[in-house]
Design goal:
This protein is an alpha+beta fold and 442 residues long. It has helices spanning 23-26, 86-94, 126-134, 154-161, 166-171, 184-189, 213-217, 246-252, 279-283, 297-300, 419-429; strands at residues 6-8, 113-117, 120-124, 140-142, 208-211, 221-228, 236-245, 264-268, 274-277, 307-308, 330-335, 338-339, 344-345, 352-353, 359-361, 404-408, 415-417, 432-436. The structure holds calcium ion (3 copies).
């Protein structure tokens, strides 16, 4: 088994991050502690033809920042799509050891947490928690943030209260903001979270199982032809994905999918993008979709075409008809009959290019027709396919370059995965880690 870099995190802790690749599609521009609005729509990684050119850093122009101290180097992960990484740049210039570690990211100051959805407790990572401010979900109750300040953890609040500058970071260094008996500086020196009392030095690692390419392909395979409907990308697409149902992957890791203590899964990419999957979505098939053909540029022209199709459609698929078969949430290793391009990190943007070796495939829970991207609508095409806010934009959940699946909650007191230090090795090795609650180590 490959050796991970592990980092402390506990049962209710924030095993989440908001790094790079998701932001091509999310465009959560202007998220910051005092932000009041934003136009982001989902947290998707890019699909195929990314066109969002959001500046990664350096040009941050947060007018709320009173500190204009020169920047020696920039955050490696955080805020790439938020167009504002000033806070994290302060942080890694005060704590140089934290640069390019998982502390160099959103969750150092922002929280995740459990909320209630339809009477059930579900975990929301720090990315999704913050995005609830922009996109409130009326079905959620409990620990739901109403404003950005509500998304801060104790360390983030202390930093804000101290003035939100580099000097503020120094002023709170000796404090124990999260009350776990370790000072902020001591925790950061050990790459533990200063805003999470469940994260502290000297913890054991979570139970984990590593699956190799051969081991995954030996699991029961499932194939499905689905629509990936993106919010912002220019193109939606249809594709056949083959992989293993997350349900089967859980069983292979020794996890009882019916264990009532499980609060969901978090699927993680090494750039810090992650998606939470509710167990009901893991354990049940999704409704079949309908195929909409003839919406490509070859048919509608470059002004109106907005869907891409595989070169060869499945033989049993036809326009206007229900797509045969039953879609499930998959960890896919194959798209349209071929292995997917291996994910690589674009060093300039901090975002993922490629989608393999493994991609999370999430069918539409509410099947519908494709729609044009938010940035590409409205058009003069007058065909009813312009952006539809109410559509199920499932592509936003389809994590590319999956390296780990966490079963929530983590056992109390254990360390979570430091995917930003160890994740790319899993991409290189074509391996996936399953870890957390109920995972059995053989
Ligand atoms: Ca502490
Ligand atoms: Ca701590
Ligand atoms: Ca779309």
């Amino acid at each position: 088994m490959r050796t991970w870099g592990w980092i402390a995190l506990g049962a209710l802790a924030l095993a989440s991050a908001c790094g790079g690749s998701d932001k091509k599609d999310s465009d959560v521009a202007g998220i910051d502690l005092v932000g009041t609005d934003a136009t982001g729509t989902d947290t998707a990684q890019p699909d195929a033809v990314a066109t969002d050119t959001a500046q990664p850093d350096a040009a941050a122009t947060d007018t709320a920042q009173p500190d204009t101290a020169p920047v020696e180097h920039s955050s490696s992960h955080a805020y790439k799509g938020h167009e504002n990484d000033t806070d994290m740049t302060y942080f890694i210039n005060v704590y140089g050891n934290a640069w390019a570690t998982r502390l160099d990211d959103c969750q150092t100051c922002h929280r995740g947490g459990e909320v209630t959805s339809n009477g059930k407790t579900v975990f929301k990572n720090a990315c999704d928690t913050c995005h609830l401010v922009i996109h409130p979900d009326a079905t959620l109750t409990g620990n739901v943030p109403a404003a950005y300040v509500d998304t801060l953890n104790p360390y983030g609040k202390a930093y804000l209260d101290a003035g939100r500058t580099k000097d503020a970071l120094k002023a709170i260094a000796a404090d124990d903001s999260d009350g776990d008996t370790f000072s902020n500086a001591d925790e950061i020196a050990d790459l533990k979270y200063p805003g999470d009392p469940a994260s502290k030095p000297g913890q054991t690692v979570a139970p984990a199982r590593t699956f190799t390419w051969d081991q995954l392909l030996a699991l029961p395979a499932h194939s499905e032809f689905i629509l990936a409907n993106s919010t912002k990308q220019q193109y939606d697409f249809y594709a056949t994905y083959e992989g293993v149902k997350l349900l089967e992957l859980m069983k292979a890791a020794g996890v009882d999918p019916d264990d009532p203590e499980i609060t969901g899964l978090t699927v993680i990419a090494p750039d810090g993008f992650m998606t939470d999957v509710d167990m009901s979505a893991v354990k049940n098939p999704f409704p079949a979709g309908t195929f909409y053909g003839g919406l490509d540029t070859a048919t509608l022209g470059t002004d109106c075409g907005f869907v891409t199709y595989p070169d060869v459609l499945p033989a049993d698929v036809s326009g206007g008809a229900t797509i045969p078969g039953t879609p499930w949430v998959l960890l896919a290793w194959n798209r349209d009959g071929a292995a997917m391009d291996t994910s690589v990190l674009d060093p300039v943007t901090g975002k993922i290019d490629g989608e393999g070796p493994y991609r999370l495939v999430v069918p539409q829970l509410t099947p519908g027709k494709p729609d044009r991207g938010l940035k590409y609508s409205p058009t003069q095409c007058n065909d009813g396919y312009d952006f539809d806010e109410a559509a199920d934009h499932n592509a936003g959940s389809m994590v590319r370059g999956v390296v780990a699946v966490r079963v929530n909650p983590l056992p109390a007191g254990v360390e979570d995965l430091d995917f930003q230090n160890g994740g790319w090795a899993f991409i290189d090795g074509k391996e996936v880690l399953v870890y957390g609650h109920g995972v059995t180590v053989p």
